[in-house]
Amino acid sequence: MSAEWEVQKALFSALSSLGLTVYDAAPQAADGGNAGAFPYVAIGAIVFSRWDVKVGNGFNFVSRVHTHSRAAGMQQIKTMQGQIYDRLHHGDLTIPGYRLTLLQFQDSDVTRVASGAFHGVSEFLGMIEKA
Asked: Which of 3, 17, 32, 63 is the most exposed place for a label (fewest CB within 10 A)?
């Protein structure tokens, strides 16, 4: 398996353990809108960059975790982002074939979308090295 897929699976497992509805790719309605069961989390883009040194090699990555809520205010989505932060920031992921050497929160944002729902994005920086 590729490192990218292994990290995706590890994030899915870690976030699912929080009791949140997690999608690899959120379902879409026929009109292109959201068809996910609100509230939910979607694992977004994971951008990888390879590094190689004399004694080993691995990857740096930035993962975007999207949160979606239709609650009347931001409390629900910010609570979800807090749970995700608590689980991932300096947390541990099981990634077969690799050792996680860094996982830390970078930033987050919440916006209100045209439908009135809230969309949050949190980014996490990670580093893995070949086991």
From this structure: 32
Specify the pTM. Answer: 0.92
Long-range contacts of 43-51 (CB under 8 A, 24+ apart): 43/8, 43/11, 43/12, 43/15, 44/121, 46/4, 46/7, 46/8, 46/11, 48/3, 48/4, 48/7
Residue 42 confidence (pLDDT):
96
Class of domain 3-130: alpha beta
The separation between the first and the last C-alpha atoms of the chain, rounded to the nearest angstrom, is 14
| C-alpha span between 7 and 127 (Å, rounded) | 10
Percent of residues, the chain, with pLDDT higher than 70: 99
120 near 129, Cβ under 8 Å?
A: no
